[in-house]
Amino acid sequence: MTADGNTTNPARVWFITGASQGLGHALAIAALDRGDRVAATARRAQSVAELADRYPGQVIALELDVRDEGAARRAVERTLGAFGRIDVVANIAGYGLFGAVEEATDAQARAIFDTNVFGPLNVLRATLPVLRRQRSGHVLQGSSLYGQSAHPGVGLLAASKYALEGLSDALAAELAPLDIKLTLIEPGYMGTGFLSHLAFTEPVPDYDRTVRAVQSSLGELPPDAFADPARVAAAVLTAVDAKQPPLRLALGRAAEDGLRGALTARLRELDDWADVTRAVDAGHS
Ligand SMILES: NC(=O)c1ccc[n+]([C@@H]2O[C@H](COP(=O)([O-])OP(=O)(O)OC[C@H]3O[C@@H](n4cnc5c(N)ncnc54)[C@H](OP(=O)(O)O)[C@@H]3O)[C@@H](O)[C@H]2O)c1
To answer: How many domains does the chain have?
Structure first.
């Protein structure tokens, strides 16, 4: 135990989705650099093979499209075969859809939920029996600034992250008595491939002044508005090492400012409408 109440760093076994690039890849490297072992999963196992070459004996490279529940179970079995346990489940795989809510087709809306919500659920159903048996472990849920706030253009992305946050609030309380921790990772903007992998809706001109204006302003963000994923990964490790990790961890100034603004506005509105809220209760005059 260190002076700040944090635990020292016992070697852990990680199960990471989306380890091919971006935050998942940075997290894998951060864990491997300090001697942990990693099941690096990716849609194409080839895209994580380089990690196995770089850290011999510490990595297994596994194929996992998170939309495939059977693949999640097979990847967990392979991980247990290689390392015997799982300490950290990092649900990082995900992508964004940009456009007005009305513009998103049914297929686009369902597709983002398939990856960003049903994907993590597949991984949770495959890994939680292991963590419950161990009576230990830590689940990291790849949320976002958009897990608790939204602006024009990110409605469906935010819907998927809000869904992940809602189920995670309940799940954290279900897992705590079993000595399993859960942390929602909420980055603002990161310098990853996320923007280049965005899906887009077919524009409707009525949304030019909202959605397309936001799109232009996002396109003008300076390079230093994007956090280095390696720094984000280091911060996530700090939370994993903490004796009492946070349920939510905002990462970067954009996340902090956005979340503070959204939560403050929500509290203010609750206060402003408190009389109407309470008038509903029986016995209220
Ligand atoms: N970048 C940001 O500004 C930002 C901000 C807040 C939150 N986030 C969240 O951070 C997470 C990681 O994103 P990133 O920024 O690192 O973006 P990224 O560089 O685009 O990486 C996305 C990762 O997700 C994987 N992936 C996508 N669909 C998948 C599927 N069906 N099955 C398995 N893997 C899949 C990709 O694999 P392939 O290599 O096979 O494509 C890739 O490894 C996402 O959940 C994202 O919502 C990002």
So the answer is: 1
